[in-house]
Prior knowledge:
Elements: E1 5-9, H1 13-24, E2 28-32, H2 40-48, E3 53-54, E4 62-64, H3 67-76, H4 79-88, E5 93-96, E6 99-102, H5 107-120, E7 124-126, E8 133-137, E9 140-145, E10 148-152, E11 154-157, H6 172-179, E12 184-190, E13 194-196, E14 208-217, E15 220-231, E16 235-237, H7 239-253, E17 258-263, H8 270-282, H9 289-292, H10 299-308, H11 322-333, E18 335-342, E19 350-355, E20 372-374, E21 381-383, H12 388-404
Parallel strand pairs: 1-2, 1-11, 2-7, 11-20
Antiparallel strand pairs: 3-6, 4-21, 5-6, 8-9, 9-10, 12-19, 13-16, 13-18, 14-15, 14-17, 15-16, 17-18
Helix pairs in contact: 1-5, 1-12, 2-5, 3-12, 10-11
The chain binds flavin-adenine dinucleotide.
The site of flavin-adenine dinucleotide has 39 residues, from α1, α2, α6 and α12.
Amino acid sequence: MKRYRIGIIGGGASGIMAAITAAGEGMDVTLLEGGERIGRKILMTGNGRCNLSNLYMDEHMYYGANRDWIMNHIRQFDVQDTIAFFQRLGLLVKDKNGYLYPYCEQASVLLDAMRFEAGALGVKVVTGFKVDKIQKKSDVFVVSAEKNSFEFDRIIIACGGKAAPKTGSDGSGYTLAKQLGHTINPVVPALVQLRCEETFMKSIAGVRAEGTVKVMSRGKCIVEETGEIQFTDYGISGIPVFQISRVVNYMLLKQEKVTVKLDLLPGIDDSTYEHIKINRKLLQNDRTIEELFNGILNKKIMALFIKLTGLKPQESSDSLSDSSFDMVLALCKNFELHVYESNSFEQAQVCAGGVNVSELTDTLESSIVPGAFFAGEIIDVDGKCGGYNLQWAWSSGYIAAIAASK
Ligand SMILES: Cc1cc2nc3c(=O)[nH]c(=O)nc-3n(C[C@H](O)[C@H](O)[C@H](O)COP(=O)(O)OP(=O)(O)OC[C@H]3O[C@@H](n4cnc5c(N)ncnc54)[C@H](O)[C@@H]3O)c2cc1C
């Protein structure tokens, strides 16, 4: 087998995986990293604990490119392959309700395991090398940064997207992909907080509540997620909000108005809800309006709903009309907010959008410039919270490296 010179641009999750895999195939591998060290984003994952994958895997966990295409790639290096890979590197892996972490829940331990393996396999790591140009001259790729350049037979572009740019993934990979003639599907922040028009958000900032977030389009719910919603002074956050944020951002990109509806009693069905209403009516005598509605949701949220209905919390509930009573309770299941933007790429965990997969072969090779491969978040694939983005990085890094080594 020929020993190709393989240049990997970007020392993040997918790039390091690609480097280890190609070196394991006997290739001459150089990992070029723009920052002063490799794997900075890995250190931030899972709040420093690194949710490295998930045992529950299906197509609904991913967005972007066609879902069959994504799953075909995930299956080529799946969750079990990921576990086996890290175990081979000496890392103990822990399963927490399907969410996989290093046993010690330290992202730095996973990164070290990868760094040690790359070193043992002879991967040359060049840091502080921010690639700004890629040229293909006959069969050779010339990869340059300021004054220096390297020559390779094959390259793997693994520069990430532009989420959390202080970790080094600042979107420059898209410029490199465009230099090679690739199309970049519109890139928006994903897994990110949403900012709402409502000025009353400050009154419930800091409250956390179990709920379902529904994104509405032309009166219909197009996506919904349930989990712990966090209210902030500017809008909403929390895992269910992160999960729907990419859908919202694409709607905003198309200048669509975005309404989200929150059901803060998600476990309560219609008949139970009716019972709650009837029972609460029985409490009406001798209580203030605030006292009448005590016991349903967080005090601050209930106080807001009373205020939004135009009622005075300290007034006697004797004066409360049936319609006002219904309106307060209806808000618990149907609280509308209007989103005008998300937080920026700085706060986002990933990017949606990126290199158009129709310009890639099944092995993630460029169909425009043969010999150039892509891996990781730079490709138009984004996953939900829960280890799915790192799994994409591992799978795509592996696939690109195996193909580049052939
Ligand atoms: C706060 C946070 C928490 C997260 N938690 C999780 C989690 O628990 N589980 C999960 O699955 N996912 C998580 N993610 C997402 C996950 O980290 C990313 O999807 C994944 O790291 C992407 O890997 P990548 O290799 O494509 O890109 P990156 O990890 O972004 O790496 C790209 C690398 O390329 C380098 N680079 C960029 N441009 C150039 C250039 N021109 N020249 C040279 N080098 C360049 C960058 O410096 C960087 O080191 C989290 C993300 C964030 C920000």
